[in-house]
Write a structure and sequence with these properties.
It is built from 37 helices and 19 strands. The protein is α/β, with parallel strands linked by helices. The chain has six domains: 35 residues; 220 residues, Rossmann fold, CATH 3.40.50.300; 52 residues, no CATH class; 232 residues, no CATH class; 91 residues, Leucine-rich repeat, LRR (right-handed beta-alpha superhelix) (Alpha-Beta Horseshoe); 158 residues, Ribonuclease Inhibitor (Leucine-rich repeat, LRR (right-handed beta-alpha superhelix), Alpha-Beta Horseshoe). Helix 31 links the parallel strand 12 and strand 13. Helix 18 packs across helix 21, helix 25 runs parallel beside helix 27 and helix 32 runs parallel beside helix 33. The radius of gyration is 31 Å and the shape is globular.
Length: 830
């Protein structure tokens, strides 16, 4: 509303001075409100007059760089608005302030903050999970004024580009030369940045691609003092430089050392697409809704491929190769290698569609191109190089025709009118070509595969140092020692090598490479995988007397499992599992998603003896649950706490579980379960008379769900542990459960903590205490039980000496009542 409008409005003309006074008050309040919400309102200093011109220039630059999606191949013509699909963002599992799904602005918001004094937010996610695209979206929304408006300036950096900086720089030079150069008053503008750090946001994409490992050895505090770029970056992250400036850093989780984590404000996990996200992305990718529907239907009939599509980069490839996907029938892709071979065929055949070979001859026709690109990728992986100059391309004899295949694109961060630089469409594509080179080239000796899989020996040899021609060894050796954590791309490359050497693909290489050489390389990989697994098994400590033998698997174990799955050789899986003798296999906090579930089930189904499988605090989801079904026969117990599983996933899981003789325990704390799942648990309890433990804490189960469970419990004569803490069953639910359990001869432990149970429910549960011959512990903490309810429990306890404890902390009792009742019954725990 403008002043002119206000003073020409009929009301002001008719009401005279009183109306004018009201209008002036309104204007004053509006101005004060605008000033109070401005990021500059808390600062008395005025920006230099050139500041707003510079801000406008920076906004224009960031907007232009962010407008088109540039991460995935073949979509550079798409605007980010047309294709962007939100991924699943999660905070650490122990965060107490998680109440709703996280949005983009929550990345820099207060939710999940663990260190108020730190400035750096880490966005971690696996390769292809959408980290770069997420940053790009944040940049674009900031430039449009649609998000992050607390920050006057946003400076985006690419660690891939920073790798190319060999000279020392100051923070001032870094900011202006890598982001946006002020036309005038550089010193004044930078001084304003230094004086107002809380108004500034830095983003660093791809910390895992930086050649140097994180270190806190070199301290730097002066923003105008020159230093190597990685030293600047590490001091920015730690807050020694530009304290108060918010920094957002992306990286793969395995590349983030504990030394860095202690400097984080918080960590946000990007988990790729949800099932709904896959649907949205595919429909956005295809303007023809009929094609989109066919692709989605194909994914629903191939759950292994659907699991792969939780990775945005793989979902993009599958969407792009829809013709190949829909035409492959029973040969639909099952592994990551299958998907990348599909994109390889798609790009190569679309380069010259009129003369492309049919059948399996397409690779032979383009073999020289594949080898040249493979050499470039291979030597890049060996030196942590992801951006290539024209000279790099010339060394590998890359032609213009090779570039036109579409696997290389101009680097937007590095290219200029004087010098064009290239990079692979995605780092996983570079790993794939490096793997093709290892498999098909005669220029790599047998040590290439050995070095790739013996990652722990990299410190001694230098990555691939022994594999390259001797004249190039010094040139291509790592500048720093490498380990598996610092070079996760080696693991991805090794995974592809395993897949490419699968028997399933032997016919593809028939006219490209000697079958004897391929078989020799395949045997090498098999031996490496076998030795790697044996090393893990030998590290299992002997159990303490009276306890079960347990193995806490590390991420390296999951990687080896994925390599075995890529080979698709059940013989190798059987051999690996024949040597594993444990009672309990623990895979918590291992970034287990649907892809990993597929590989785990493929391998673990060959275990000789049943195990307890613990997958707590991962990202299994409904699709991952479905992928685990083939190994349910060997699961005695299944722990899936905190895994974003819904009723639909449980429906499929229990339909299989009922058929499995060994299956006796399940724990599903903190998922997304509702009353709809309880009918399936009720059927399980009625059907399996050897089922021992059911834990459904912290879900969304109400009295109706409890009544459904009670129907199954009435006919069950084996259950020993029932956990429903943190639900909403109330008195009605407690009464239903009590009615079903009061004559139980097996139940040892019952937890209804935090369920809104009052004295009516407590009186019903007193009947369980009075009549059960097995119950030892009853947990009723954090409910709303009053004196009357507790008195009924005390009376019941007088008739049952077998019960060891009844927990009643945080109920509706006064301190005096607690003291009095503790005196009456020592088994009450307040």
């Amino acid at each position: 509303m403008t002043c002119d409008y206000l003073f020409t409005h009929p009301l002001s003309r008719s009401k005279g001075e009183s109306a004018a006074a009201v209008i002036l008050q309104y204007i004053q309040r509006t101005q004060e409100s605008q000033e109070s919400t401005s990021p500059l309102s808390q600062n008395t200093s005025t920006p230099p007059k050139e500041f707003f011109k510079y801000q406008k220039k920076l906004i224009s630059s960031v907007s232009a760089q962010s407008y088109f999606l540039s991460t995935y191949g073949g979509t550079s013509h798409m605007s980010l608005d047309d294709i962007y699909t939100e991924g699943q963002l999660e905070l650490a599992h122990d965060c107490v302030d998680i109440s709703a799904p996280l949005g983009l602005e929550d990345v820099v918001g207060s939710a999940g903050t663990v260190n108020e004094e730190a400035d750096t937010v880490l966005v971690s996610g696996e390769a292809g999970s959408g980290k770069s695209t997420l940053l790009q979206r944040l940049h674009l929304l900031w430039a449009r004024g649609a998000a992050l408006q607390d920050f006057l300036l946003l400076f985006p950096f690419s660690c891939r580009r920073l790798n190319s900086e060999s000279r020392d720089m100051s923070v001032q030079e870094l900011v202006f030369q890598h982001c946006c150069w002020p036309d005038r008053e550089q010193e004044e503008i930078f001084q304003f940045i230094v004086d107002h750090p809380h108004l500034i946001l830095f983003t660093f994409d791809g910390l895992d691609e930086l050649k140097q490992s994180f270190s806190d050895e070199h301290r730097l505090c002066c923003p105008t003092q020159p230093a190597p770029v990685h030293v600047l970056l590490f001091n920015l992250i730690q807050g020694f430089l530009m304290k108060g400036v918010r920094k957002v850093v992306t990286s793969r989780p395995e590349a983030v050392a504990p030394l860095l984590k202690k400097h984080l404000r918080k960590e946000v996990f990007l988990k790729g697409f949800s099932p709904a996200g896959i649907d949205i992305f595919v429909r956005k990718h295809h303007s023809d809704s009929t094609v989109a529907a066919k692709v989605l239907q194909s994914l629903q009939t191939n759950t292994a491929l659907l699991g792969l599509c939780h990775s945005p980069v793989l979902c993009s490839i599958v969407s792009q190769c829809h013709k190949e996907l829909l035409g492959c029938g029973e040969g639909s892709p099952q592994t990551i290698t299958d998907v990348y071979l599909m994109i390889l065929q798609h790009f190569l055949q679309h380069q010259s569609p009129m003369k492309s070979s049919v059948g399996l001859g397409w690779l032979q026709e383009h073999l020289k191109t594949v080898l040249r690109m493979g050499q470039l990728a291979f030597e890049g992986i060996a030196t942590s190089c992801y951006v290539f100059s024209g000279a790099d391309l010339e060394i590998c004899c890359i032609t213009e025709k090779d570039i036109c295949t579409g696997f290389l694109m101009q680097s937007k961060d590095m290219s200029s009118s004087q010098s064009i630089h290239y990079e692979f469409l995605h780092v996983t594509m570079q790993c794939f070509f490096a793997a093709l080179y290892i498999v098909l080239s005669t220029n790599t000796d047998r040590s290439a595969i050995l070095t790739l899989f013996k990652l722990q020996q990299l410190k001694e040899t230098g990555c691939f140092g022994a594999c390259l021609p001797s004249a190039d060894q010094q040139k291509h050796a790592f500048e720093e020692d490498a380990t598996a954590e610092q070079t996760p791309n080696l693991q991805i490359t090794a995974t592809f090598v395993s897949g490419l050497l699968s028997q399933r693909h032997q016919s593809l290489w028939l006219h490209c490479c000697s079958s004897a050489i391929l078989e020799k390389k395949a045997r090498q990989v098999e031996r490496c995988l076998s030795k790697g697994m044996q090393k893990h098994f030998k590290s299992i400590p002997q159990p303490v007397q009276g306890e079960k033998k347990s193995m806490h698997a590390m991420p390296g174990f999951v990687w080896l499992i994925k390599c075995i799955y890529e080979m698709q050789e059940s013989r190798i899986a059987k051999d690996a599992m024949s040597k594993l003798e444990v009672d309990h296999l623990k895979l918590t906090y291992c970034n287990i998603g649907p892809v990993e579930c597929t590989a785990l089930a493929y391998v673990l189904q060959h275990l000789r003896n049943p195990v307890g499988l613990q997958l707590d605090n991962n990202s299994v989801g409904d699709v991952g649950v479905e992928q685990l079904l083939p190994c349910m026969d060997i699961c005695k117990s299944l722990y899936l706490r905190n895994n974003n599983i819904t009723d639909e996933g449980i429906r499929k899981l229990l339909a299989k579980g009922i058929q499995c003789d060994n299956f006796q325990k399940i724990a599903l704390f903190n998922n997304n379960l509702t009353d709809a799942c309880t009918q399936h648990f009720s059927h399980l309890l009625r059907t399996k008379q050897d089922f021992l433990s059911l834990r459904l804490g912290n879900n969304n189960i109400t009295a109706e769900g409890a009544k459904q469970l009670a129907e199954g419990l009435k006919n069950n004569h084996s259950l020993m542990y029932l956990g429903l803490w943190g639900n909403k069953i109330g008195d009605a639910g407690a009464e239903a459960l009590a009615s079903a359990l009061e004559n139980s001869k097996t139940l040892l432990w019952l937890s209804l903590v935090g369920n809104g149970v009052g004295s009516v429910g407590a009186c019903a549960l007193a009947r369980v205490i009075r009549n059960s011959t097995s119950l030892e512990e009853l947990w009723l903490t954090e409910n709303c039980i009053t004196r009357a309810g507790v008195e009924s429990l005390i009376q019941a306890l007088q008739h049952n000496t077998h019960v060891k404890s009844v927990w009643l902390r945080n109920n509706d009792l006064s301190a005096e009542e607690v003291e009095e009742m503790t005196q009456q019954e020592s088994r009450l725990i307040f």
